[in-house]
Amino acid sequence: MNIDLKEFFMDLSLSDFFKNVPYLGASSILSNKDISYYELDPLKSNIYIYIKNVRNYGDLILGEKYDVAFTMKNPKDYQKTDVEIDYLTLKKGDNIGIMPDGRGGIVRLKFNGKVSEMTKLLKQSDDEQFDKNKHSFIYFTTQEVMDKILEELDKQENSIS
Question: Which pTM was predicted?
Answer without folding.
Answer: 0.87
